[in-house]
Write a structure and sequence with these properties.
The chain is built from seven helices and six strands; from the N terminus they run H-H-H-E-E-E-E-H-H-E-E-H-H. It is mostly helical. The relative contact order is 0.18.
């Protein structure tokens, strides 16, 4: 799988998000146990597929994943035919036709997305996204887990930290929602998840807690698709170094045995 590269623009956005969180006085997210954490951590394939379902059904209407290609979904358990079907649901601008035209009868020529294409964004550009969201700009989620330290815990807390009413004396602006873990406690995004938001294809109970855990795991994968390979290589290198050290120690004892 082609390694996802962090662009300079994305880096600036994530750095700004991290600084805003630090300055916003939000509550500290509680630590959660994640299967992908630790030296032996791995992604749960079933959870990744459920997380993709949450993204597709709930998040994709506003948030993009522009650094991920559809074919990357084969790495989490989807077959090639399934990926082709998923990609074909989306449209992209088509190349010029035989006459060199890109617009015919006043309409832009379009084509179905292919597995090699990156996820199609829900909006044509930032301006269109802001117009559709009352001025707010839904960020790209490709690297959101890397936005700050303990990103998985923060995103989980954010998704489950909405309150129906703001605390007494808190001035909540019109059109905003109170969230205990968001910097400043005011967020433009309405609560995206609740119980039964998504009906899982594998029959897993569709609770808010499950939805949040699944989408966080999926976003952890989009941010670090090479995580398992990197950890596997690290373990192999450590084992090699241990064996090599033991061999050198035995060799040293053999060479200096006559001296002692």
């Amino acid at each position: 799988m082609r390694k996802i590269i962090l662009s300079a623009a994305a880096g600036f956005v994530l750095l700004a998000a991290g600084n805003a969180f630090a300055a916003g006085g939000a509550a500290v997210p509680p630590a959660k146990d994640w299967t992908f954490q630790g030296i032996f951590g791995k992604f749960d394939r079933d959870q990744l597929k459920r997380g993709y379902q949450v993204y597709k059904d709930i998040c994709a209407g506003c948030h993009s994943l522009r650094l991920v290609a559809y074919r990357n979904l084969m790495d989490i358990g989807f077959t090639e035919d399934e990926v082709k079907d998923i990609a074909s649901e989306y449209q992209l601008p088509a190349p010029p036709n035989d006459d060199g035209d890109t617009i015919v009868d006043g309409e832009r020529l379009m084509r179905a997305a292919k597995p090699s294409d990156h996820f199609v964004s829900p909006f044509a550009n930032e301006k269109a996204a802001r117009v559709a969201n009352a001025g707010a700009y839904p960020p790209d989620l490709s690297l959101m887990v890397k936005a700050r330290k303990k990103g998985p815990d923060y995103i989980y807390a954010l998704l489950t930290g909405y309150k129906e009413e703001a605390p007494e004396g808190f001035a909540l602006n019109e059109g905003m929602y109170y969230n205990e873990y968001f910097p400043g406690h005011q967020i433009a995004m309405a609560p995206p998840l609740m119980d039964e938001s998504v009906e899982y294809e594998d029959g897993t109970p569709a609770t808010l807690d499950q939805h949040a855990k699944d989408i966080v795991t999926f976003l952890a994968w989009t941010a670090s698709p090479e995580l398992e390979a990197r950890k596997s290589m690290g373990i192999k290198v450590l084992l090699f170094l241990v064996v090599l050290t033991a061999m050198f120690y035995a060799l040293k004892r053999r060479i200096w045995s006559d001296v002692h």
